[in-house]
Amino acid sequence: MAGPTTAERQQKKSGPPRPPRVRRARLPRTRTLIVILVLVALLGAGGLWVLYGSQWLRLERVQTSGTRELTPDEVREAADAPLGTPLISVDTDALEDRLRSKLPRIDSVDVSRSWPHGIRLEVTERKPVLLIEKGGKFVEVDAEGVRFATVERAPKAVPRLELTLDRESGAASLRRFGTGRLLREAVRVAGDLPEAVARDTRNVKVRSFDSISLELSGGRTVDWGSGEKGRTKARTLTALMKAAPKAGHFDVSVPTAPASASS
Question: Of 184, 145, 142, whose CA–CA distance to 163 is shortest?
């Protein structure tokens, strides 16, 4: 029987065949890393220069929207935006604070960048729900009780406040709550009125904290009571007016037991 061949003997000596070597991916060389870092730094510096140093992204115009009583020029002047400066560096919070401070008629304002050269001011003005006559002029009061403007002429469809306190209950209310609280109650009532009723309301009379009444067009009157349960009273008054359209007096001071009369 023939013995193992020379190749077989060599294989036994060297052991089983080794698996093929897997070449690992080489990490980028130091020079390549340096080049990449330099490129990133240059791109970052270029971006910063475009935003802050170039003339391409500078503030050139200020646009306004949402104004009613105010004019766009008044808003832009009060904002005092720094024209010519990099748009990215404009402090939008400072613009908002400046507008609200200089123009109390502004309830809120949204300041945003309008790339590449603008600032946009979206204004929401306060709406008067009550007027206080003072020295021949009229102080406008919004639904939050903020006195935000004094005007020469009374705006249409905004009722006036009449603080005609009763001797006993009115005086007691004044001592207990103060004029400011009574004013807020009147504002609260005016803000809760149904839209159709609010347009017809000429005066809101405050005799005491619990006795607030309305004078409507056509000589009609409404006993509202206190400022509590305003929404319920508003719904009750709307239904009562539909049920008795020719009535001249309505009482919703107790909304669960409303009443109406011809005069």
Answer: 184
